[in-house]
Design goal:
13 helices, two-stranded parallel ribbon, elongated, 7 strands, alpha/beta, five-stranded mixed sheet
Length: 455
């Protein structure tokens, strides 16, 4: 009675090895057959036109110099047939021109030509005492190709190319002709060094580009955040102005039935509706202000109760700036000019921001502040001009957050005015704002006949 046949003990391990080998070969084939950005030239994104042409010049120089040299060495030194030597030399050098845009495809052509050349040199008469399987000119061209390859392809592809080069040398080792000098180890080591150096340079360049892109994005986000902060600050300041007018509407609408005798019942109801709507609007504004006001402001003192400043408070502002060491001359209109609250507040804030910039960036510079009205009474001109700072003084800040100019532009935009800022030829700075004395016209609301009939 015979028992069951024994199962080979080493079969599972052999299967695992074969499966791993097949998987490795599959990954190797995928990496060697999937180029990165085919058709895009090396240094194609560089701004300098001469640097963009550099890869073409280098590739052309290698191809032109190596082609005749390879033909001469293969035919004269190694004793190959002239036609075969010319064909192999062309296949080994001409694809270097392709390496500028498609280095992985160029590697396939050159590596295949190098393999065929090694096989042809196996039976050549002049191989004794010479380099094999890779002649010197083959090594030079291959290393030049590795530079282009390392600047374009992924790390896994570079490892696959390096291992394939080593495997080819190992497979040729048993067929080494007598008296020849083996060069496969030399090429294997040099290929690894060149690929590693090129990959390091490429990764460093990629990291620098990503850093620049991130800095650009951060700068744009910072500018956007600054703009939003300034708009929020302006909205908080204008709350009191609008709330004052809404309060007047509420009081007048509530007191109208008591102040005006003989009003019809419909008119009293209409005034009551107006008052209720005004109170609802005030409540909505308070809720909006609660969203706009920062938690830090609420934590330190709660809502602001001080009245909003205007051009009437400019003398006090200038006095504080003079005490800070900046000589300031102030010129105001002789007659009191009635201003809209938004225009009055914007004019004061523009002067305040301009003087703050002088204190920070040009301490000690003589400054002139002028607030004038146009002859036709249509606009208010705010002008702040400072001279260059004294030579011994140094700016308190060399960089700014950008809040000042952004805030000025937003305030001028709010009242439909214009702003002109910039350095002066002598080294000073100028801020000029044109603010309309009358409020900007409100957009006309278009009502359809159906809407107008229902009012």
């Amino acid at each position: 009675m015979s028992g069951p046949s024994p199962t080979p003990v080493h079969e599972p391990a052999r299967q695992r090895v074969l499966r791993a080998a097949r998987q490795a070969l599959r990954v190797l084939a995928v990496e060697l057959g999937t180029p990165t950005e085919p058709g895009t030239p090396l240094f194609g994104s560089v701004q300098n036109p001469w640097l963009r042409r550099l890869p073409y010049v280098v590739a052309f120089g290698f191809a032109v110099s190596l082609l005749p040299t390879t033909i001469t060495i293969l035919g004269h030194d190694y004793g190959l047939n002239g036609g075969l030597a010319g064909a192999l030399a062309t296949a080994q050098t001409a694809p270097l021109l392709l390496a500028v845009t498609r280095p992985l495809q160029a590697w396939w052509v050159i590596f295949t030509a190098d393999i065929l050349c090694a096989m042809a040199l196996t039976g050549a008469d002049g191989v004794a005492g010479r380099a094999w399987p890779w002649p010197p000119m083959v090594i030079v061209g291959y290393l030049a190709l590795m530079v282009a390859l390392s600047l374009r392809e992924r790390s896994r592809t570079l490892i696959a190319v390096w291992l394939t080069t080593g495997v080819a040398g190992i497979l040729f080792e048993p067929r080494t002709p007598d008296g020849s000098v083996g060069t496969w180890v030399l090429l294997f080591v040099l290929t690894g060094v060149v690929l590693m150096m090129g990959a390091t340079l490429r990764e460093r360049g990629d990291a620098q580009r990503k850093l620049i892109e991130q800095e650009t994005i951060s700068e744009a986000e910072r500018a956007r955040r600054t703009l939003l902060e300034e708009r929020t600050r302006i909205a908080r300041e204008l709350h009191d102005v609008v709330a004052h007018h809404m309060s007047l509407i509420t009081v007048q609408a509530d007191s109208a039935p008591y102040r005006l005798s003989g009003l019809p019942r419909e008119a009293e109801e209409e005034f009551g509706s107006i008052a209720a709507t005004a109170r609802e609007s005030l409540a909505e504004m308070r809720r909006l202000l609660g969203v706009l006001r920062s938690e830090e402001t609420e934590r330190h003192g709660g809502p602001e109760k001080a009245p909003q400043p205007g051009i009437g408070m400019l003398p006090k502002l200038v006095e504080g700036t003079v005490r800070a060491g900046v000589p300031v001359e102030l010129s105001l209109p002789e007659d009191r000019v009635p201003l809209e609250p938004a225009v009055d507040l914007s004019a004061y804030r523009i002067v305040q921001e301009a003087l703050a910039n002088v204190v920070r960036h040009a301490p000690g510079a003589r400054t002139r502040v002028s607030v004038t009205t146009a002859a036709d009474g249509s606009r208010l001109t705010v002008l702040v001009v400072n001279s260059p700072p004294p030579a011994p003084s140094a700016p308190l800040e060399t960089t700014g957050t950008g809040h000042g100019l952004i805030g000025m532009r937003e305030r001028v935009r709010l009242v439909d005015g214009s702003l002109d800022t910039g350095p002066l030829p002598d080294g000073g700075f100028r801020v000029a704002a044109q603010l309309p004395l009358s409020p900007p016209p409100a957009p006309a609301a278009s009502l359809s006949p159906k809407d107008s009939g229902s009012v």
